[in-house]
Description:
Layout: E1 5-13, H1 15-21, H2 26-32, E2 38-44, E3 47-54, E4 57-64, E5 68-72, E6 78-82, E7 84-86, E8 89-94, E9 97-105, E10 108-115, E11 118-126
Antiparallel strand pairs: 1-2, 1-11, 2-3, 3-4, 5-6, 7-8, 8-9, 9-10, 10-11
InterPro entries: Calycin, Fatty_acid-bd, ILBP
Keywords: Cytoplasm, Lipid-binding, Transport
Pfam families: Lipocalin_7
Amino acid sequence: MSFSGKYQLESQENFEPFMKAIGLPDDLIQKGKDIKSISEIVENGDNFTVTITTGSKVMTNTFTIGQEAELEMMTGEKVKGVVARDGNKLKVTLKGIESVTELVDQDTIVNTMTVGGLVYKRTSKRM
Length: 127
């Protein structure tokens, strides 16, 4: 299955505690908690471009599986990381945050981020 497509956030769990744990200020947490972000993924072989639009904020990350890339985190900070693919999952660890994006079926993506035992789960559906 290909990750390519546009997906809209359908549900999320532990948004506020997770964002506090990674250092996002309260005003941004309150602004972002009810916004249904849109993720657009372009997969071309091992090359990916992921664009996440949350209100007026647009974050784009481009990477190749298995190669180091500079990736922007939710906090706006840019860090280097290597994205690995394991079947229908993309995995990366950035600054202690483990992120797994799974293509559950052709229309559903589940992104799970874990920091210090705190799990933030986002479920998005293909548009």
